[in-house]
């Protein structure tokens, strides 16, 4: 989690000056805040995250303590497939995360029936990941989203415009939920080869093989790219 420190400084002549830091890791920001307080010239300290949410020092400390016991350091992979003959879609998602100092991997897939294209299946897969993050209790954290659908990721990031009405509906829904959860998305388009785990799950869904599992990873398995 990254924050900006907003420090209301009191000068020797009792004037107030508001100083603002660059974006810092929350742990480092708290350490610096404690250093500021040693000057005896702090009237107020506020921490502002990437979603423009303000936190007091006490609130930020509590949040970081909660984060350690909840999923964090999250990398989420997604993929969607569409069968033109049956008009059925399969979606797959893999989420790597840490919780209570341990690495985990969550895998799931779904078979969907009311979509119209492969791109819409990709959007549905991304939406499923966001819903899963909400169920896991993820909030006010950066999350890395990886997929081989450059259309979806570039439209979500704003790099590409979205003119299709169906896609815009997914886009609006996803952006609203990310904002609600305070998630700072980091979009990383990857190749299909790099996305093979989520791709396989989407294919298995189309075959009728539904999977949902969470496992604790060994030290070797902590690399999401393996």
TrEMBL record:
It comes from the Bacteria. Gene3D superfamilies: Ribonuclease H-like superfamily/Ribonuclease H. PROSITE patterns: RNASE_H_1 (PS50879). InterPro entries: RNaseH-like_sf, RNaseH_domain, RNaseH_sf. Pfam families: RVT_3. This is Ribonuclease H family protein. Residues 70-207 form the RNase H type-1 domain. PANTHER family: POLYNUCLEOTIDYL TRANSFERASE, RIBONUCLEASE H-LIKE SUPERFAMILY PROTEIN, RIBONUCLEASE HI.
